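In response to reviewer comment 3 from the previous cycle, which asked for concrete evidence that the modeling workflow produces usable outputs, we include below a single protein chain processed end to end. The sequence was submitted unchanged, and the resulting structure tokens are shown without manual editing.
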Amino acid sequence: MNVITIEFAQALVKVGLLVAVGWFMANRGWVGPASRLPLMRLVIWVFFPALIFSRICNNKLLSSSSQAALYLGTGFLMIVCGILIGQWVAKWVGYEEGVAKRTLAYSLGINNFGYLGIPITAALFDRDVVGVLLVHNVGVEAAVWTFGVTYLSGKKGWKGLKNLAQPMTLALAIGLAINFAGWGDTSPVTFLAQVLHWVGECAIPVGTILTGIYFYETIKGYRFFAEGRVTVGIILARWILIPVSLLLVAAFVVHDPELRKVMLVQAAMPAGIFSFLIVEMYKGDVPIALRCSVFTMALCPIITPLWLYVGSWFLGMKA
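The workflow returned the following structure tokens.
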């Protein structure tokens, strides 16, 4: 399968350009540390909830059917298993129980499931596979904002459950409830979904620009290769254990052909570029999260095509 396409290159270049815009703005002094928190709140509390709702609302693949449950459940379990693998790697690295260990496990367990995953899936496969990916990503987002943030915060019981009462999970729950009630195609809901779609389109570009701003303010004097064992742990988790696990599940457990293609792309993804924003929001160790994001994204042009090629051969797939 040909994995080196114009669309694949464009997806990587778009990310790089938007990060560079944020870096340039911070370098020129157009935005400073005081601007970072309001922008982060805007992205996490407004743009992303709107994006989630617009993706869910009236999505024909999201009904009460077993097929939707399969796609949602696979996305959810992918993140849960990724964080558990990350937890084992963090322990192997030598981190004791605490913020650093939880941050590394969380950052390793979340991949770049949307911004790179969507255009790469569209470049390699047909629209039906992209539709499955969007439903799968709802399950991913549910895991990120439920199991993920509860684990990251280190809070248990009622204190951990209170993390679920925030805009991301509320948008997810309301959108699913509307779909299951059959109201997704009513005029008021359709109008609301259109408005939120426009708002949600800002999430990824503004969030990526914010990433560049954050990099400029945080990376000064920071050496990404200072902790060699952590770097080896990142390589072990994101480039070996997680991809191999996903491909084995796709080969021997999952029988839905479209979902297997989605899992192939997910296996080849780097760590999530926005993870550090969530880490900061829940008082994690931001430099560790940045190390995961930047290190895996920097080598993404090499590692992602390699895993796509190996995975497509292993699964016997064609574009």
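The mean pLDDT is 84. We consider this sufficient to address the reviewer's concern, and the full set will be provided in the supplementary archive.
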